[in-house]
Design a protein that fits this description.
By secondary structure, the chain is an alpha/beta fold. The chain has nine helices and nine strands. The longest helix is centred in the last third of the chain and has 12 residues. It starts with a strand and ends with a helix.
Length: about 210
């Protein structure tokens, strides 16, 4: 499983790094989450500059794509040339977006009338784009998922793990990163948040 974590200038570190860190727990099984950017370097909302691992074009080839948020997302949403570089296919890719990344998912025409999750700051902009915003941390329909709130990145990672590797793999990855003394609670919360939105056959198999 090759995963593109779309990361733009002004990005939120929690969105990109938490999801990538959890998903890369599967590297021994051949998985790899790549920080994927429109330029060689990007600088976070807090001034942390990082090197891109993959160019934006990689998103078209990836098995799964996560779109993180950032303080410049509204500008990106208006940049037709940049959006045109993001070629995604929900018939063969798992596609997730977080917080203001949900606005980009809408602008790319990928929500298809689905309701979505986002953060409280972005909520008015997503509503303005014609999307119903849900008051919950995670929602998925088919191969499209959205999450709201920085720490909801763990739910996007859990969703990709459950879809691509199964419940046991997802539980193991979340268990590893969860706080000591609260591991079972974190695992249960993540699985409970995601399980209702799995394909019917897979959801039944997790019980």
């Amino acid at each position: 499983m090759q995963i593109a974590v779309l990361t733009f200038d002004g990005f939120n570190e929690l969105d990109s790094f938490i999801a990538a860190g959890i998903l890369n727990r599967m590297r021994p099984q051949g998985w790899k989450a790549f920080i994927t950017c429109p330029s060689e370097t990007v600088t976070s909302m807090n001034g942390v500059t990082i090197q891109a691992e993959k160019p934006l074009e990689f998103a078209a080839q990836a098995d799964a794509v996560l779109i993180g948020s950032g303080m410049k997302t509204r500008d990106i949403a208006k940049d037709a040339a940049l959006l045109a570089q993001i070629q995604l296919d929900p018939t063969r890719q798992l596609i997730g977006a977080q917080c203001s990344g949900t606005l980009l998912l809408s602008k790319l025409g990928l929500l298809g009338g689905r309701p979505a999750c986002t953060d409280l700051t972005t909520k008015p902009w997503v509503i303005e784009a014609g999307v119903e915003v849900l008051d919950q941390p995670f929602y998925a329909d088919g191969n499209i998922a959205t999450a709201g709130g920085c720490l909801a990145s763990q739910y996007l990672a859990t969703w990709i793990l459950m879809r691509g590797a199964g419940t046991d793999a997802a539980k193991a990855a979340i268990h590893y990163v969860a706080p000591v003394g609260q591991k079972e609670d974190y695992v249960a919360r993540a699985i409970t948040a995601v399980q209702p939105f799995l394909p019917v056959q897979q959801a039944a198999a997790t019980h």
